[in-house]
Amino acid sequence: MRHRAYWISIGISLVIIFGLTGAWATHHRALHQFRGEQTRTATLLLPGDGGNWLSLRSMTLTLSQPHVATHSLTAHVATNGHVSWEQLRPVRADNPVVPVLFADNTHPQREARQLVGVLNDLATRYHITHVNFVGHSSGGTIALAYLNLAHPAPVTVTHLVCIGADFPGIAPLTRQYPQLRILNLAGMVDAVPNDGEVPLSDARRLGSLVRGHVASYRFKIMHGHLWQVEHSLLHESGPVDREIATFLYRPN
């Protein structure tokens, strides 16, 4: 029995490894045929709890390819809120993508307040007037908390994509955002109603927090196996990237 259990565990491990390998191999090809509208609206990528460049790297690289978007800037936010910029390319009408990396990356409410400085800089230094937010896990919490701030930055948020987010401690929106469209993506591993971490019921809460205050809201479940839609892999998923690109950039 011990040997049988050993070989079963080996078999399960190999299935997961091959599944992950296949998913990663197809991930970066997900948008090769995509052609979208090109504008100066910047898309800010907001990481989850404890997130860093490794959390956002895969999504950034997949989005940043010809006819989709361009990784133009990276914002580095110090613990005291000071923002420093790494510029990779000129900011143009080519759907600039901006990963936002917080040194203090475990306090969404504080990160939401620090996001004001990032957006102020985008407006004054790079003449960005419109932005999208894409938040994985507590990155969605950061975005919602920002939208509830009394004094947000002088930029217009046009789209928000939440990925595997659950919004603990977030109050319903109090301000009207008539231009804001929201897409809420949640993972469901096989027949289990969660992504291994966030239950679908928690992800659905976003609807009650925003309805009546935004232009549109849509909830979509991303079905798949563990190696496709597990919580920490949702931001490394080809189908998720296609949903995001289609929602943000309106394919031609």
TrEMBL record:
The keyword Aminoacyl-tRNA synthetase does not apply. The keyword Membrane applies. Keywords: Hydrolase, Membrane, Transmembrane, Transmembrane helix. Pfam families: DUF915. One of its GO terms (molecular function) is hydrolase activity. The chain crosses the membrane at residues 6-25. It comes from the Bacteria. InterPro entries: AB_hydrolase_fold, DUF915_hydro-like. This is Cell surface hydrolase, membrane-bound. The lineage of its organism: Bacteria, Bacillati, Bacillota, Bacilli, Lactobacillales.
